[in-house]
Amino acid sequence: MNITGDMLIGASAVRGQQTRLHAINPATGETLAPVFGGGGEAEAERACALAEAAFDTFRNTPPETRARLLEAIADGIEALGDALIERAHAESGLPLARLQGERGRTAGQLRLFARVLRDGRWQSATLDSALPRRTPPRPDLRLQKIAVGPVAVFGASNFPLAFSVAGGDTASALAAGCPVVVKAHSAHLGTSELVGRVIQKAVADGGLPEGVFSLLVGSGTSIGTALVAHPAIQAVGFTGSRAGGLALVQVASSRPQPIPVYAEMSSINPVFLLPAALRSRGGQIARDLVDSLVLGAGQFCTNPGLVLAQQGDALDAFRAAAVAALQDKAAATMLTPGIHRAYEQGAGQLAEVEGVQRIGLGCAAAGPNQARPALFETTAARFLADHRTQAEVFGPSSLLVVCRDADEMLAVARHLEGQLTATVQADAADHAQAGNLLTVLERKAGRVLFNGYPTGVEVSFAMVHGGPFPATSDTRATSVGASAIERFLRPVCYQNVPAELLPPALQDANPLNLWRLKDGEPVKG
Amino acid sequence: MNITGDMLIGASAVRGQQTRLHAINPATGETLAPVFGGGGEAEAERACALAEAAFDTFRNTPPETRARLLEAIADGIEALGDALIERAHAESGLPLARLQGERGRTAGQLRLFARVLRDGRWQSATLDSALPRRTPPRPDLRLQKIAVGPVAVFGASNFPLAFSVAGGDTASALAAGCPVVVKAHSAHLGTSELVGRVIQKAVADGGLPEGVFSLLVGSGTSIGTALVAHPAIQAVGFTGSRAGGLALVQVASSRPQPIPVYAEMSSINPVFLLPAALRSRGGQIARDLVDSLVLGAGQFCTNPGLVLAQQGDALDAFRAAAVAALQDKAAATMLTPGIHRAYEQGAGQLAEVEGVQRIGLGCAAAGPNQARPALFETTAARFLADHRTQAEVFGPSSLLVVCRDADEMLAVARHLEGQLTATVQADAADHAQAGNLLTVLERKAGRVLFNGYPTGVEVSFAMVHGGPFPATSDTRATSVGASAIERFLRPVCYQNVPAELLPPALQDANPLNLWRLKDGEPVKG
User: Fold this and answer.
1) What is the mean pLDDT of residues A170-190?
2) Known InterPro entries for this protein (chains A, B) (predicted)?
3) Cα dist from A261 to A214, A247, A280, A490, whole Å
């Protein structure tokens, strides 16, 4: 499949005339062909108008139709073969094996939502029987969830496949029955076009209205702002920086009709090392933690950017092991020159905070845009006193915070902002302290994990990739896992609607064979 | 029980020193004793600090404990007997029978949430088994929903019991495990205190932390703003005007940590009269619709403020029947002098819109603050051209919009803002047209009903009392029915958490006997 540099607006390829953009190979600094034409308000308007025109047809397709669409997209992405992986590698600097894994995850997400669609619990079908002899009579009441409307999706730089054009936001929105308009991330324009053309073809092959999917390209914020401000758009999915997410929240809440924004923004993912665990396996924890820290050049939303431990001999041994493990770690190419600059700047600023020492470094950079892993240390007292220590440094950098005792560790936990994850390393002897921490951490994070590392986000039913502000803009939601579909649904009650006009999920015969809540009890069939 | 005029802050009665307030009997204009002392920021701060201190204990109580709290509140409200009804009558002008019914509804809501708590589906317990031999291994993942944190509740003027101090917002927030701080509506201060003291006593009798409930009193917006801006508050429930709701949304979204606001604001609740129904039973529809219009002096969020019909003989007969039915309807006392003034002003402004005629009136006012029912008429073309015709006139006023044909009726439906309800009167011969309308109306409203009237909101599992903006500020939620609890919950994932630290809902033994989703399938036991 050729990469042309066009936008995909419905069934058309449209050459943007506003700006010229190209991707850059961060490992070499080279410009990658072709030149992309960036669009503006007119193209956002056209894509949104098509999405609106497609919406009623698309949301009312049988769930099986949308399941097949998602599977066709998954198949199509796999069929792109090495061309996709090589382009994504050139645009992102991410290793080939990592991108192959991410492709598997992307296809797996699409297929999970196909399963979710066939299962049908997402519809929340609920039936309350009429009680005609009650005073006053109770009407027949039936509830289902329906799609909210066209959705705007902004992909992430760090997952050019799994959180991008056909990533979790797009998969869950299409599953819900929402047409999707994606703003391509300028760091991986070619990857975006390849995947976008797969979706465009799957929509056409499925006989669906062309407006089900569009892919916009543009530089700066104007096309994204026009997209979120468009009256047809009813929700926004975003993965990226805190500043970027908050800017979209601002646009969305300033509309005549405000809309929800699901922005997954920033998190430093604290790891708490409890005393018994530190004594019994501090060396192993140090090595595993450093592996988690440098994975993918530290460019994960769940990167462990904060480590907390209580002072003492076991901590000294842990620190020595971590510093030793870190010094063998290679510098790795970051996604973009801009992200690399931000890492250098963030790590430099942290080093200058009073009371913060840099205690370990990985190997020096051996090429353009490579990040040198770094470990910093401070005291809990300094951490509590200076909010700069809590800022995310996106990349392979972490801050070890030394606490006097369990109470001070708990105080640090209480002081934290909202997080995607919080991790506890604990042996059985630590469980009393761990229980106290858990009560605090479940208020601070969307996922609390024990004796593991936060990188690695399973795509399943029980996953929550979300969390209190500023980890996300909406703590009620997850952007990974089956529940992600709920972001793009709203409930509607049908009162005394004639049988022949009832939607399939709510018909007496239960043609979709759903689990439904009938008069308060789950029943099937 | 005496009414003292104090605020209830935790276990204490606190005399506000900032302002002096009193309720007014709208039927007589008389001032009602006692004088209430209004508080300010200091009292909001104290109530919120107590709520925060109570939160971890309260959210971790067994669901059965909270179920009993809700039942004790319901019992206590009923035990207030006539004193409560008489005070509410004096403060609101609402008829005694209506208030007795509302008391039953209020107790019923509290008991529904006790059932919801015992049923436990609200916890969304979800278990994904570990797959240790997979590459990479899958961890043990378990999801439950937990309380978001302390909640601020602003009661409605028009339901001094069911949407006020112990109304649906409070019941669902307490059920979720959220401490509640209520700002009493200044129109029914005495009713608020009576109910507040019942909750205060139930909290104490249940051995729960005092911060589980507080009741603030204040004039103007300063105490409400302080409450919503307080960092402890994590969500807001509000029922009232569009201006009031949007002001709270603004405060909530300007916080360093923005929080969700569930504001139920304004709706004109369109009623579509389809041709066959209009021909076969237009006279009956006219009489029933006028009954619905004047019920409770038209002071329902679901009042039918807009009626749409196609021109022709059947419409002429309907119009005549409606005008005749209306002219016998008494004027009725409105809730407050302010609401009465706003009604007079709104109906007056509507009458002055070009192309709008007043075609019917009820009986003239026979006492202070009485609203005279009114019916207006315009054409679909005027309605589409002038947005003033779409403004809510809170009270017994409705606008008949005459459409040329089915297409124009559909155009009007598409033009509508978001609504709480949309109603279709349709016979079997109307079903093709009704199906087209339904596709539009399910996007416009939280509840679509056939061959009934929108007033009357059942408290059950399938109810949705919500809808797209501006009907509410959050279209994903309902403020009535079992699903209302979802507003005050957020999901947390527990990864590889040791068995002895798992919350009860997620323990292998399923001690709460919940329906849970295990590896994607619902199971119990």
Assistant:
1) 98
2) Ald_DH/histidinol_DH, Ald_DH_C, Ald_DH_N, Aldehyde_DH_dom, Aldehyde_DH_Superfamily, ALDH_KGSADH
3) 19, 10, 44, 14
Task: Kindly state whether residue B134 falls inside one of the protein's structural domains.
Answer: no
pLDDT of residue A319: 98
Distance CA(A399)–CA(A382), nearest Å, equals 12
pLDDT in tens, A80-101: 999 999 999 999 999 999 999 9
Q: Are residues B301 and B238 in the same domain?
A: no
For residue B498, give the nearest of A253, A450, A461 by CB distance.
A450
- Under an 8 A CB cutoff, do A462 and B257 touch? no
Asked if residue A276 and residue A198 are part of one domain, the reply reads no
> pLDDT tier at B33 (50, 70, 90 boundaries)?
very high
Instruction: Report whether A198 contacts A77 (CB < 8 A).
Output: yes
- State the ipTM, two decimals: 0.97
| Mean pLDDT computed over every residue of chain A | 97
CATH number of the domain encompassing residue B307 = 3.40.309.10
Residues of A in contact with B447 (CB under 8 A): 492-495
Is residue A299 located within the same domain as residue A257? no
Q: Which domain holds residue B293?
A: 270-450
B316 within domain boundaries: yes
Angle ∠(B168,B102,B172) on CA atoms, nearest 5: 10
Does one domain contain both B105 and B243? yes
The CA distance from B503 to B84, in Å, is 40
From B102, B178, B210, B301, the catalytic residue = B301
pLDDT-based confidence at A428, cuts 50/70/90?
A: very high
Considering only CB atoms, which chain B residues are within 8 Å of A501? 431, 434-435, 438, 450
Residue A279 near residue A430 (C-beta atoms within 8 A): no
DSSP state at residue A410: H
Q: What are the C-alpha distances in Å from B317 to residues A181, A426, A479, B307, B326? A: 49, 78, 55, 15, 14
CA distance A119 to chain B (A): 9
- The nearest CA of chain B is from the CA of A393 a distance in Å of 20
| Annotated catalytic residue B403 | no
Kindly identify which residue of chain A lies nearest to residue B148, measuring between CA atoms.
A443
How close A476 gets to chain B, by Cα (Å)?
A: 5
Tell me: pLDDT of B1 over 80.
no
Tens digit of each residue's pLDDT (9 = 90 or more) over A448-465: 999 999 998 999 999 999
Q: Are residues B368 and B256 in the same domain?
A: no
The owner of tokens 């997850």 is: A478
Does B220 score more than 90 pLDDT?
no
B chain contacts of residue A473, beta-carbon cutoff 8 Å: 258
How far off is chain B from A15, nearest CA to CA, in Å? 33
Residues in chain A within 8 Å Cβ distance of B473: 258
CATH (domain of A252): 3.40.605.10
DSSP code, position A490? E
Q: Is residue A83 part of a domain?
A: yes
The per-residue pLDDT for A1 is: 76
> By the 8 A CB rule, do B441 and B417 touch?
no
CB contact under 8 A, A451 and B496: yes
CA distance A44 to A403: 51
State whether B495 and A139 contact (CB < 8 Å). Answer: no
Question: For residue A426, which residues of chain B lie inside 8 Å, CB to CB?
Answer: 498
Contact call for A483 and B143, based on CB within 8 A = yes
Total domain count, chain B: 2
Percent of chain B with pLDDT over 70: 100
- When CB atoms are compared, the residue of A60, A438, A494 closest to B501 is A438
In this model, does residue A220 exceed pLDDT 90? no
Cα of B18 vs its chain's centroid, Å: 29
